[in-house]
Every structure is written in structure tokens, then in C-alpha cells.
Amino acid sequence: RRVAALISGRGSNMAALLAAAEHPDYPAEIALVLSNRADAAGLAHASARGIPTAVVESRGFRGDRAGFEVAMEAEFARRGIEIIALAGFMRVLTEAFVARWEGRMINIHPSLLPSFPGLETHARALAAGVRLHGCTVHLVTAGVDEGPILAQAAVPVLQDDTESALAARVLAEEHRLYPAALAWLAAGLVRVEAGRALVSGVGM
Ligand code: GRF
């Protein structure tokens, strides 16, 4: 299946997807890396690996989210994109766009959802005093960070943790989890029942 990875910045999760997709048995090809910012560091990484890139600057659309999405979808159409993997993409999508890609769009979020949706997840986990934190891959639905959960990984929160130490511990798990979850979706192993994602052949 042909996948577009959508980024806004560093792109380390996108890089993890590219690395996984280099294996011949991997069921997805990253056929496009699209950024809504021309200065996203991840673009250079993708280009260096010969992956097509596109920039659709959200700034240029002045709040016209539907117009921005139509411009992105023109790029998807050019590349025959079938699945979207949000990878640090910092724009909220319209309900109409989400509906068009329902079941075919996933996101990685740096917390154990439903705890800590939104931003600043590591600082909020530290402030809450939780002992476990982590990351979640979920199908994207209209509510931000609310879609059916495909996979999660947990890490311990240590007594003397800093936000950056905790973020790095979570990020290492993100890089492991995201390629696995995308592979399930691309291989057609995921179905949704009563708002929950079921993954065939995976006992978790
Ligand atoms: C990651 O922590 C991801 O979970 C969140 O934004 C961050 C993006 O990092 N959605 P990167 O651009 O993939 O390095």
C-alpha cells in the first residue's frame, strides 16, 4: 500500500517508517513525505533517501483549512496515496477530510491515550505524577487524539525524570511502535467494531 507520511518538523517518526519500509517484506511503501512547513527538517532526510517530498504551506491558506486539504489531496492523487500516517503533523484536519480518509489515516501521539491528549504531554505526565507514560498509535477520527487505539507502548516515569529525558524514552518506543502499527493497517489486519480497533493475529 502507498503511504504518505505527513510532518511539520523533525520527522524522526517518519524516518522510522522509511527505515522499516526498506525491508522487502514490509507491506507499505512511503510514497510521499508531505510537510505543511517548508523548513521541516525531515524533508531533507526523506529527499536524501530518494523519497518524493511535497510542501503545502498551511500558512498560505490563511485559515482556509478545506483549501489547504484540497491542495494536499492533489499531491496524494499524483502519488496514488492510499494511507496517511500523521507523524508530528501539527495541523488539525477538518471533519470532512477526516471522513474521507476514515480507516485509512493513523496518528502517533506521545502519551497513553486517553490520558493527556493534546500538547505538552510529557510535562503534564510529570506534573500528574503518573508512574507509567508512553505512546499510542490510533486511527484518526474527528475528535483530536480520540480515535480507536491500534497499539500502545509504556515506559516507566522515574523519580528524577526531566521532561526531555522522559520524552526521549517515549520517542524510542514511538520509533518501534509506529512502523508495527502501520504494517498492520497496510496489511489489512485492522477492523473497527463498536469504536474499537481489532487487529487480526495480534494478541494485544
Ligand atoms: C512525536 O513525539 C509524536 O508523537 C508527536 O510529535 C512528535 C513528532 O516528532 N505527534 P518527530 O517529528 O516524529 O520527530
Automatic annotation (TrEMBL):
Please give the HAMAP family that the UniProt record associates with this protein: PurN (MF_01930)
- The superkingdom of the source organism is Bacteria
Which residues hold N(1)-(5-phospho-beta-D-ribosyl)glycinamide?
11-13
Q: Which reaction does it catalyse?
A: N(1)-(5-phospho-beta-D-ribosyl)glycinamide + (6R)-10-formyltetrahydrofolate = N(2)-formyl-N(1)-(5-phospho-beta-D-ribosyl)glycinamide + (6S)-5,6,7,8-tetrahydrofolate + H(+)
Q: May I ask which residue range the UniProt record assigns to the signal sequence?
A: none
| EC number(s) on file | 2.1.2.2
Question: What residue stretches are annotated with the Formyl transferase N-terminal domain?
Answer: 2-182
UniProt: (6R)-10-formyltetrahydrofolate binding residues: 65, 107
Q: Name one Pfam family in it.
A: Formyl_trans_N
Q: Which family does it belong to?
A: Belongs to the GART family.
Annotated pathway: Purine metabolism; IMP biosynthesis via de novo pathway; N(2)-formyl-N(1)-(5-phospho-D-ribosyl)glycinamide from N(1)-(5-phospho-D-ribosyl)glycinamide (10-formyl THF route): step 1/1
Q: What SUPFAM superfamilies does this protein's entry cite?
A: Formyltransferase
On whether Glycoprotein is a keyword of this UniProt record, the answer is no
Instruction: Name the UniProt key words of this record, in alphabetical order.
Output: Purine biosynthesis, Transferase
* EC category name: transferase
**A GO cellular-component term linked to this record:** cytosol
NCBIfam families named in the record? PurN
Give an example GO biological process: 'de novo' IMP biosynthetic process
- Role description: Catalyzes the transfer of a formyl group from 10-formyltetrahydrofolate to 5-phospho-ribosyl-glycinamide (GAR), producing 5-phospho-ribosyl-N-formylglycinamide (FGAR) and tetrahydrofolate.
Which residues make up the annotated site Raises pKa of active site His?
145
User: Care to name a GO molecular-function term for this sequence?
Assistant: phosphoribosylglycinamide formyltransferase activity
Q: What is this protein called?
A: Phosphoribosylglycinamide formyltransferase
Entry annotation: catalytic residues: 109 (proton donor)
